[in-house]
Amino acid sequence: MKKIINTVNAPAAIGPYSQANMANGVLYISGQIPVDPTTGKLVEGIEKETHQVMKNLEAILTEAGMTFKNVVKATIFLKNMDDFAVMNDIYASYLDAESFPARETVQVSCLPKNVDIEISMIAHQD
């Protein structure tokens, strides 16, 4: 059975989707962009953007009773692959080195609201 996960600590969906769905112990988190949920405004610069996206993902995981240790898969979309090293260091700082998820990172030509980064995740209950 599917359960919709929603929290005010992450940006509200800006379209016909949920922040996340839980199904059979698997949490599917929609792509998060760097919107500060308290102000509704975008943060700018790849460092601030990456931190905000990770905080948004963490809020959704927390609402579902999980942490980054539960994440089994991440998909990262970057507008510019030159931002990879900066993003990668910040991304890694939120994770436990003993439980890194599988991941791909791709460069795309455009993202919603013209942001520099979007990340989606899949997590599994222990």
TrEMBL record:
Any GO MF annotation of the entry: deaminase activity
Listed transmembrane segments: none
Stored InterPro entries: RidA, RutC-like_sf, YjgF/YER057c/UK114
Domain of life: Bacteria
Gene Ontology CC annotations of this record: cytosol
Family annotation (CDD domains): YjgF_YER057c_UK114_family (cd00448)
Classification via NCBIfam families: Rid family detoxifying hydrolase
Family recorded in the similarity comment: Belongs to the RutC family.
Protein name: 2-iminobutanoate/2-iminopropanoate deaminase
Organism per entry: Chryseobacterium taeanense
Lineage: Bacteria, Pseudomonadati, Bacteroidota, Flavobacteriia, Flavobacteriales
